[in-house]
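Q: What structure does this chain adopt?
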Amino acid sequence: MNKLITLFLALILGLNGFSQSTFVKGYFINNSDEKINCFIKNNDWLNNPTEFEYKITESAEQKTLTISSVKEFGFFNISKYVRHNVDIDRTSKIVNELDYNKNPVFNKEELFLKVLIAGKANLFLYEDKGLTRYFYNKDDSEVAQLIYKNYLTSEGQVAKNNEFRRQLWNTLKCESISMNNLSKLDYKQSTLIKFFIKYNECTNSEFINYIKKKEKKDLFNLTLRPGIRSSSLVLKNGEYNWKEIDFGKGLTSFRFGVEAEFVLGFNNNKWAILLEPTYQQFESEETFVTNRTTGEEYVANVNHKSIQINLGLRHYLFLNKNLKLFVNALGVIDNNVNSIVEVNRVDGAKLFSAKLVTGISTALGIGCKYNDRYNLELRYLPNRNILNSQGSWGTEFKSVSIILGYSIF
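A:
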């Protein structure tokens, strides 16, 4: 088992070499207004970048450009970032950090803003470690922040400054847009994009929507997960001369699970949250002699049935268009169902009997996924005591599973 753990860790470390993001055809505009076609490393940034890596050709040396030397960069028809000097309010939305000031507190900053809608009216996004701000302009006017701020009233209640609605009403007027439309507008990406699309359509303006709709299967996958589990179990008790009962290291059983995978929409969909309920069962019996002189024999039985709830994080490493590797880190709640371990003398006299109780543990997995449909995983659950507190009795239980998967959608 130790060799397996070593191999598992070595594979995880070795796979880091495959985790590089792809260099994609793109461009940048420098401070001299020169547009240079190149290949840019697409990190699908969660936070707006301040620099990026690029190559003039696919085989050229990799270099880095910073915000101070680039006015604009992007990937053709995929995404675009533009540099602007803007007033930005970085007031926290955390209740304990709110103040009593209704008005934003602006600071001038040079930022790469992500273009969401480009047209007669433009919508931009800035994200930084949980901070989300939207900016806008019309035609060639100055880019301004859409104002939205949480603050405290004199009674200590949380209130909202929705000034962004008035800003849009004053700036982006059109016959199909009413104040009633704006009064219901939320300060979030989906509703703001719809509003800016509506305005550009209303003014018969050409526009580009840079936020591509992802297919449902890209964001949520449901997978059937049958597999085989190989376990080892040792029952221990320090009060007796024999001390432990080894049920063996090859306790084979079947498991079946259904995995719900929620893909997070950043970093090129490399991260996902997993929820997998699993049913598994095994039984084993071991006969042993406690006293060689008297020949006293005992029989130990274990009947283990459980519904495991696996919840964790998955990271994908892309090899090519159809094949990707992944590593999982999981928390496991093991709900035992009428599971029991007992030790009886061969004549029927009981020595020990206890129910296996619900426990919490961790698991690690490594695997591959082909064509977003088929997957194979090796999963390891480290040693744990499935008896919890039972006096001087305890167990050492660990397992390795080989799991097959087929994604329904």
